[in-house]
Amino acid sequence: MKEHLDKGFLKLKRDILDWEWYQDSNTSRVMIHLLLKSNYMEKKWQGHIINPGQLITSISNLSKELKLSESVIRTSLEKLKKTGYIISQSTNKFTMITIKQSDLYSDISTINHKQVEDENAIQKHSNDYQSTTTKKVNKEKEIIERRDLFQKQIFAYQNIFSKEILKSFYNYWIEENKETGGLKFEDEKYWNLETRLSNWKSYNSKSSEKKPIIKNR
Q: Structural domain boundaries of the chain?
């Protein structure tokens, strides 16, 4: 599942309370909506480059999004254009709106440059974590497969050696070497399984023998 990335934020200054259109509920609502909908990074759309602070929309789309009539949207946009807050370029298919910088809100390009860096950092962290996790899982799976193969090779001698001998031999030699990443038996330069098993049996037999008790005469 693709990790959700935060779409960022917009800094509005308290001075907006004194903004000339703040008391005009429709116009202020349209303006804030345009700020929130505007691009935060450069994008291409159907052959057009949309820069930060710009958006492609239409009167009908804004009307649906804000639940305001098209005439109200058109009037609010005209107010914002005449007072220099936006620039509007219309075609028969869409309208491109460019938001001009204002002291009422922070520079869109500055905020979004930081946001893009943050999103890239988040994505990189996610990719690195996923890559590390995948490598770890693959390594563990590989070790299990190598141990299973080694176990099959050992227990092929169960008609010669007891299960206790084979089991203790297996448990001893499958320990992982943290430095090399290999299993204990894999780090041995010379390895002959049957010879090793015979030596293991002999060693364990001697270890299990009880030493004679010397009594004082």
A: 14-105, 112-208
pLDDT tens-digit profile of 49-96? 888 888 888 889 999 999 999 999 999 999 999 998 888 888 878 888
Q: What is the DSSP string of the chain?
A: -PPP-------B-GGGGG-TTTT-HHHHHHHHHHHHHS-SS-EEETTEEE-TTEEEE-HHHHHHHHT--HHHHHHHHHHHHHTTSEEEEE-SS-EEEEEPP-TTB--HHHHHHHHHHHHHHHHHHHHHHHHHHHHHHHHHHHHHHHHHHHHHHHHTTTTTS-HHHHHHHHHHHT-B-TTT-SBGGGG-SS--HHHHHHHHHHHHHHHHSPPPPPPP-
Contacts of 53 (CB under 8 A, 6+ apart): 38, 39, 98, 99, 101, 108, 109
DSSP β-bridge partners for residue 98: 54, 87
Assigned CATH for 14-105:
1.10.10.10
User: For the chain, which ranges sit under pLDDT 50?
Assistant: 1-5, 109-112, 210-217
- Which residues are CB-neighbours of 105 under 8 A, at least 6 positions away? 10, 11, 12, 13, 16, 35
pLDDT at position 209: 52
d(CA 175, CA 184): 5
